[in-house]
Give the backbone structure.
Amino acid sequence: MSKAITKSKLQSVVADVAAGVIREAAVAGEATPGKAIAKARRVADEVVADPRIAPALDPVPRLKSQTLRGILIAAGAPLVVALARLAGVELAEGDAATAVSTLLSLAGAAYAWYGRETTTRPLA
């Protein structure tokens, strides 16, 4: 099941919950503004707790975010090469290290972009 909140999924949940609350209010003969506000709040609470919506509202921990992991990869690759060069590591001096660093940065950027495009939940 997709965790994304779609317009039709949200409409369906709101319609189902609101219909139930309206039925209850009609049976009980409740029509005061205070009771209407309380019912509206209950509708909102039930909508966000509905199993069709609730998974999409569950935040993603920052280290499980594909976008943030991609950014770390993209930024980390050249940083590792630069630190290795400062430390005098011979392997980091060649063009191969620069090429690998560039490829890892591009892969990290692509992964970050993919994470951003496919995200369905907020960050924690």
About this structure: Residues 18 and 40 are 8 Å apart (CA to CA). DSSP finds five helices and no strands in the chain.
